[in-house]
TrEMBL record, chains A, B:
Coiled coil: none annotated. InterPro entries: HMP/thiamine-bd, MTH1187/YkoF-like, Thiamin/HMP-bd_put_YkoF. The lineage of its organism: Bacteria, Pseudomonadati, Pseudomonadota, Alphaproteobacteria, Rhodospirillales. It holds the Pfam family Ykof. SUPFAM superfamilies: MTH1187/YkoF-like. Residues 4-83, 122-202 form the Thiamin/hydroxymethyl pyrimidine-binding YkoF putative domain. This is YkoF family thiamine/hydroxymethylpyrimidine-binding protein.
């Protein structure tokens, strides 16, 4: 299995380099478990699927604490058949991707309910792509049922779903959608994620 | 059929609002054919699939001419079974999504070769998701063969492919990957796209 993300942090500020360099230190605690590589377009995270969203949350919360309008954009993937197997990516626990949809929805809700608050309010939208699942729209509708009960559901949009709330439960909701839905543990799922803080625009 | 995109423009500048408002005028010429709606996270474009990339190119080129580091992030979709049929989205011509892969690759190359230059150099990366195609990895490998002959191929990355060059052929390459590959004309294809200009970072 291979799992990881291409993530980009966009501070809308003249000092975007300073904000990025300051907040990227929040990834230091993950460097033992995640491979982290940066170029001019994105930072690659490779490692266990359950580590990806905590790392993204900590990075984004650090950037948002600058008070500037910041956006995190991420392409998150597990099980892509075009990527090599990597022992680094083995989940440390059962990610919960098997079993009936209603059981997975309840388990996902419990994780979100237990997510600690960060004090940073965010808006997010994401698309969920279950690539290797024959009944992929059933899985997408299952994700939507979970989202509606997550406590951070805001509204459906074309091509994606909008979330709003504290970064803690919002990132936990994204994580649970990624881990538990769309494919069995070795199947192929990707997410296209946008998270925003401190926007001056009307919702 | 339904086709469209959720697009976001990120100018890394204190005057991000001014740059966005200035460049969004580039979309005015598309308002007759595209439905355009903005909230705090993204701008929705809905309309014929062959109109989406010219609109994104013109918006991004206008923003990049500010000289500031700017990024366009887009989730582009056609044929999503969860969206309603919309006559506005009917392609004005055959989008070329049928026929053998090698024929589609040659046709896509011809469009890219004819794309006018804009004078704006960009780097881009994107993921291609053929959601409703049983042999979806064959389609992805077909897209990769096309990209390698596009003249703007830079290198493969994990989970995506990197392009570099003038915004004209780069957006034409993204468009051809979207229109011709991944699904028959009514099938479901999405792209997760990032385009960057004026970055101070090392590639």
């Amino acid at each position: 299995m291979y799992s990881g993300a291409q993530i980009s942090l966009y501070p809308m500020a003249d000092d975007f380099v300073g904000i990025i360099l300051g907040s990227i230190r929040a990834l230091d605690r993950y460097r033992d478990t995640l491979r982290i590589e940066t170029d001019d377009l994105s930072t690659l995270l490779v490692g266990p699927p359950e580590q990806l969203f905590p790392a993204m949350r900590d990075l984004f919360v650090a950037a948002a604490r600058s008070g500037r309008h910041c956006v995190l954009s991420a392409c998150v993937s597990r099980g892509c058949p075009g990527e090599p197997d990597d022992p680094r990516c083995a989940p440390s626990t059962d990610i919960g991707a098997e079993g009936p949809l209603d059981v997975r929805i309840v388990a996902a809700q419990e994780v979100v309910n237990a997510a600690p608050a960060t004090g940073i309010t965010v808006a997010a939208q994401f698309s969920h792509y279950p690539l290797s699942h024959g009944q992929y729209m059933d899985e997408i509708y299952g994700v939507i049922d979970f989202l509606k009960s997550s406590g951070v559901f805001d509204r459906p949009k074309n091509f994606c779903t909008r979330l709003a709330g504290d970064a803690g439960p919002v990132f936990a909701t994204l994580e649970q959608a990624f881990l538990r839905f769309g494919a069995p543990p070795e199947g192929h799922v990707t997410l296209d994620v946008t998270v925003s803080a401190n926007s001056p625009s009307r919702r």
